[in-house]
């Protein structure tokens, strides 16, 4: 009897939907903090939720992007954004919970992006470790980059050395690449997401950081 009650495709779909919900709420809450109107919050939440996957699908030739072929993801993003708009004041009090949503979405999307890149082998396209890692990383952080640019923020992936973000996503994607073929796809995706969560946790503790080069003033 399988350890998970759903079949592989259904399980991966559930994980993707959870990641979409998590990212949409994270993005929409930034819009609430910026005092965007309802439309602005919806745009920010949806872009965060589906933007990374859309960029990945476009790069790998899997067009139109998944969220246009299966509107379930877009509806989930809209509902998550509406929830953030309606309960934003209450949710903002739970900063750690919101950060957990963001980390969860990052891990699930990075792992799913890497798995999607690996599946290109089914159509005769084989990506190496760097290609799979880049596709997974972009799937995880692409929506957040677009979100920050729309909100007139410097993308976090460029300066938050104290909290690994893009690096954590790349680590999770690489883990999926290394595990692929050795364990079932579902387990590879969950383990890859776990690597992202672990790296983010270690960086928050100050145990893992990226170096910063500072030029002398004057």
TrEMBL record:
Keyword Kinase listed? The answer is no
Topology relative to the lipid bilayer, per the entry, is: Multi-pass membrane protein
Q: Classify the main location.
A: membrane
Q: Which residues form the Glycine transporter domain?
A: 14-87, 100-180
- Write out the entry's keywords from A to Z: Cell membrane, Membrane, Transmembrane, Transmembrane helix
Write out the annotated subcellular location.
Cell membrane
Membrane-crossing ranges are: 12-31, 38-55, 75-92, 99-118, 130-150, 162-180
Which domain of life does the UniProt lineage start with? Answer: Bacteria
* Record keyword Nucleus present: no
Q: Belongs to which family?
A: Belongs to the UPF0126 family.
Q: Which PANTHER family match?
A: INNER MEMBRANE PROTEIN, UPF0126 INNER MEMBRANE PROTEIN YADS-RELATED
State the protein's name: Trimeric intracellular cation channel family protein
Organism the protein comes from: Deinococcus sonorensis
């Amino acid at each position: 009897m399988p350890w998970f009650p759903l079949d592989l495709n259904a399980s991966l779909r559930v994980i993707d939907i959870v990641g979409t919900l998590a990212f949409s709420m994270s993005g929409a809450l930034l819009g609430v903090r910026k005092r965007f109107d309802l439309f602005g919050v919806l745009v920010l939440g949806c872009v965060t939720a589906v933007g990374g996957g859309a960029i990945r699908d476009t790069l790998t030739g899997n067009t139109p992007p998944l969220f246009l072929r299966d509107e379930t993801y877009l509806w989930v993003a809209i509902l998550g954004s509406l929830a953030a708009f309606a309960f934003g004041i209450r949710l903002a009090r739970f900063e750690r919970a919101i950060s957990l949503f963001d980390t969860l979405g990052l891990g699930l999307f990075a792992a799913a992006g890497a798995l999607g890149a690996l599946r290109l082998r089914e159509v005769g396209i084989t990506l190496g470790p760097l290609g799979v890692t880049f596709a997974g990383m972009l799937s995880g952080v692409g929506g957040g980059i677009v979100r920050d640019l729309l909100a007139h923020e410097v993308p976090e992936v460029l300066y938050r050395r104290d909290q690994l973000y893009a690096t954590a996503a790349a680590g999770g994607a690489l883990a999926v690449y290394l595990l692929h073929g050795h364990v079932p796809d579902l387990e590879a995706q969950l383990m890859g997401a776990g690597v992202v969560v672990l790296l983010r946790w270690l960086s928050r503790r100050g145990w893992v950081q990226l170096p910063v080069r500072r030029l002398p003033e004057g």
